[in-house]
Amino acid sequence: MNTRFTLSLDAMGGDHAPKMVVEGIEIACERFPDIDFLLFGDEKQLKPLLDACPRAKARSQIHHTDEAVQNETKAAVALRRGRNTSMRLAINAVKDGRAAGVISSGNTGALMAMGKFVLKMLPGIDRPAIATYFPTQRGDSVMLDLGANVECDERNLVQFAVMGEVFARNVLGVQQPSIGLLNVGVEGFKGNDAVRAAHDILRESTLPIKFHGFVEGDDIGLGTVDVVVTDGFTGNIALKTTEGTAKMVAFFLKQALTGSFMAKLGGLLARPALNVLRTRMDPRRYNGAMLVGLNGICVKSHGSTDEIGFATAIGVTANLVNGQFNERIKEDMGGINIDQSAAEVA
Amino acid sequence: MNTRFTLSLDAMGGDHAPKMVVEGIEIACERFPDIDFLLFGDEKQLKPLLDACPRAKARSQIHHTDEAVQNETKAAVALRRGRNTSMRLAINAVKDGRAAGVISSGNTGALMAMGKFVLKMLPGIDRPAIATYFPTQRGDSVMLDLGANVECDERNLVQFAVMGEVFARNVLGVQQPSIGLLNVGVEGFKGNDAVRAAHDILRESTLPIKFHGFVEGDDIGLGTVDVVVTDGFTGNIALKTTEGTAKMVAFFLKQALTGSFMAKLGGLLARPALNVLRTRMDPRRYNGAMLVGLNGICVKSHGSTDEIGFATAIGVTANLVNGQFNERIKEDMGGINIDQSAAEVA
Fold it and tell me: Which of B108, B104, B107 is CA-nearest to residue B145?
């Protein structure tokens, strides 16, 4: 489906919005010449920004609104009172068929609540989950949920496993992705009730997925499995912990390579290789997490990202649209009866 | 209190036990000439190992037992049927006053259950927590709980905050440690009920601690606070995630520095500096987590550690004994009424 399509953008979401949104479009335009953009936000701010970005301007249409969801607004409040916010209007455009997908760098809770309310859920899925891929020793892996659901039961976790499997297969191109449940140990009795029950369902069920069993925190970086399944509280903290640790190691490395004359010289000679490493680990390369389970493509970009990261999120969304991601999930979920699988175990 | 004292060791706990235990003593003997050791375990295995380690042999006394707690044994079962295991007998030695502290690299759940049963809790503490320190950009920080309690309420979290503060002050030597509660966002409404309620208690209470508020996963590596407080499920996964990420970055770095001739040459010149970095990040340097809250010094060593890591755990335990850690906690807790603080908020 590499035909022309439109993405709707919450132009006011994110710490550096709307500037990074417009500049992100400008960058993305080169790689994706077949995308048009609907920008929802403050016309007074957006117009001069677009004037400075000619490629973005040629492909973008502004839909003015004064309102935007604030970071500190609770999801329920945003849902009730935010009908004219840039986020809500951008989501509406997907519902109405004016856009093939929506991207926001704004308030995650609000995006999830509005997405669920406007787009509804895919058949067989109770709650959306935030999914993204990240680098590991063995290539990219997928992790979900990264913060949509602070508390999850076994039914949610099993659904996340199925959606994560589809994500890894269709977005990462892994033939038969392996699935791991994140836990505090690999023995079956470890962990809380939800992970133990989900483990039993996945282990015993007839779901056509490759279930590895429990994995631990260090398995994330090792790339032990293609899909790491966890609740949104743990997943959010685990993902951000990897970011913080990678930054810490980079900081230590920089210190080490400026310590002595020999170290400096070594660092200088190795600089091109180290730059490749830096690019490989750059979180902006992995920006753009999907709210899987919604009946519409909805991508959450990191709140603090810049134009390069936002351009990545546009690319992620374009791939999801081109890959007809939600149609694939629907097809795959059609052959899977989670309730029946759970019932067989119980 | 740099006088002579005795540590009791579960000589059979850990993947590489009992060899790494005996060799770990041999290493530790150099740094700590004033420690004697009680070794609980299989005499047939321990005797030849001690014969090969003359310094360790001179300071160790074997207490034979055939039984050991297995990794896959549930805590409740270990507690009920494990009265003659090396772990249990080693803990008993602390209770009886024959040893000033105990170290085990075995089953964490069993160690906690037995520790609680035999040693009891410090006054005012409901549950023990596993605490350790680890490297950050701003020096070492403390995190707890790392896996003792899969589910925690606000009362547990507040107690962990107080114990972590004492740990940072007395073990790391931080004058007025700052405390952060690990969460999925910094806004007060984020997270689950337990972290929100603990946040309110710590924010509003008259506890003489420096409460920073919520921190996120990336704050762990950044070293934003001196003490990171969380439940045992999240803490265990966060700690192991940092280990896995550090390994992944080291792996990528090695790849980068073997890619081209120039990179190899650079890596060669920088090798001494990179070795310092490797040592700095070596998890064996941070081995030995305390079960804080128990009325006795009880240290959990990593199950997969080697003799170098075990020697570190001996050092950690020696510092806790020398620093009269539990006496300090008792003193500090004496001036703190968590229940009253909670009541004032409620």
Answer: B108
A72 touches chain B (CB under 8 A): yes
State the pLDDT at residue B110: 94
The residue among B240, B253, B285 with the most chain A CBs within 10 A of its CB, best to mutate, is B240
Q: Decide if domain A1-125+293-323 falls under CATH 3.40.718.10.
A: yes
pLDDT the model gives residue B266: 84
In chain B, which residues fall in CATH 3.40.718.10?
1-120+293-324, 126-291
pLDDT one-digit tens code per residue, A224-282: 999 999 999 999 999 999 989 988 888 888 888 888 888 888 888 888 888 888 887 78
pLDDT at B170 exceeding the cut of 90: no
> What pLDDT score does A338 carry?
58
Nearest to B241 among A220, A232, A260 (CB): A220
**What does pTM read for this prediction?**
0.88
* DSSP letters spanning B219-278: HHHHT-SSEEE--HHHHHHHHHHHHHHHHHHHHHHHHHTTSSHHHHHHHHHTHHHHHHHH
Whether the CB of B76 is below 8 Å from some CB of chain A: the reply is: no
Kindly report the CATH class assigned to B126-291: alpha beta
pLDDT at B14: 94
Q: For strands A210-215 and B178-182, give the pairing.
A: unpaired
pLDDT at B344 over 70: no
Which band of pLDDT confidence, cut at 50, 70 and 90, is reported for residue B342?
low
d(CA A151, CA B190): 12
In this structure, the dihedral spanned by the alpha carbons of residues A292, A294, A299 and A300, taken in order and rounded to 10 degrees, is -80
The beta-carbon neighbor of B273 closest among A71, A257, A280 is A257
Q: Are A201 and A257 within 8 A, CB to CB?
A: no
Give the type of residue at A133.
Answer: Y
Pick the CATH number of A127-287 from 3.50.50.60, 2.30.40.10, 2.30.130.40, 3.40.718.10: 3.40.718.10
Please name which of B305, B143, B300 lies closest in space to residue B220, comparing C-alpha atoms: B143
Average pLDDT value for residue range B223-235: 96
Check if CATH label 3.40.718.10 holds for domain B1-120+293-324: yes
Q: CA-to-CA distance for A3 and A14, rounded, in angstroms?
A: 29
Q: Is B15 on the interface with A (CB under 8 A)?
A: no
Residues of A within 8 A of B265 (CB-CB) are: 266, 269-270
Q: Residue B276: its chain A contacts at CB < 8 A? A: 256, 259
CB-based burial of residue B82 (10 Å sphere; 0-12 exposed, 13-18 middle, 19+ buried)? buried
What's the pLDDT tens digit per position in A192-208? 999 999 999 998 877 77
Q: Look up the ipTM and state it.
A: 0.86
Residue B345: per-residue pLDDT: 52
pLDDT score of B1: 46
Chain A residue with minimum CA distance to B274: A256
A87-120: pLDDT as tens digits: 999 999 999 999 999 999 999 999 999 999 999 9
Contact call for A234 and B237, based on CB within 8 A = yes
Which positions in chain A touch B191 (Cβ < 8 Å)? Answer: 150, 233
- CATH 3.40.718.10 in chain A, residue ranges: 1-125+293-323, 127-287
Pairing of strands B139-144, B227-229: parallel
Q: Which residues of B touch A242 (CB under 8 A)?
A: 217, 241, 244-245
Cβ of A184 within 8 Å of Cβ of B137? The answer is no
